[in-house]
Design a protein that fits this description.
With 91 residues, the chain is an all-alpha fold. It contains 1 helix and no strands. The protein starts with a helix and ends with a helix.
Length: 91
């Protein structure tokens, strides 16, 4: 082998290893960024799910309060009619 062939061979080997190391480093950087983005995404999604659950709970409590108020008004109106009927009956 001549010296030019040896220089060419070593330059190809060094070039291959350098590119391989660069691709590995780039892959590690990309995986780190993707995992960071995924963690932010999952955190935001859990916050959104928590807010949706809280809103559903508030709506359930609100519906329960509305139904309770309607029942109280119904009982109040029935009692008022019963009392007025009884009061008129005794007069």
């Amino acid at each position: 082998m001549s010296i030019i062939h040896l220089i060419y061979f070593f330059s190809v080997v060094i070039n291959l290893f350098t590119h391989m190391c660069l691709y590995c480093a780039l892959g590690e950087i990309l995986i780190a960024q993707i995992s960071y983005t995924y963690s932010i995404f999952t955190r935001k999604m859990t916050q959104i799910k928590y807010n949706i659950v809280q809103k559903e709970r508030k709506m359930r409590i609100f519906k329960l309060i509305i139904l309770a108020i309607l029942n109280i008004q119904l009982i109040k109106s029935c009692l008022f009619q019963i009392l007025t009927c009884n009061f008129n009956f005794f007069q």
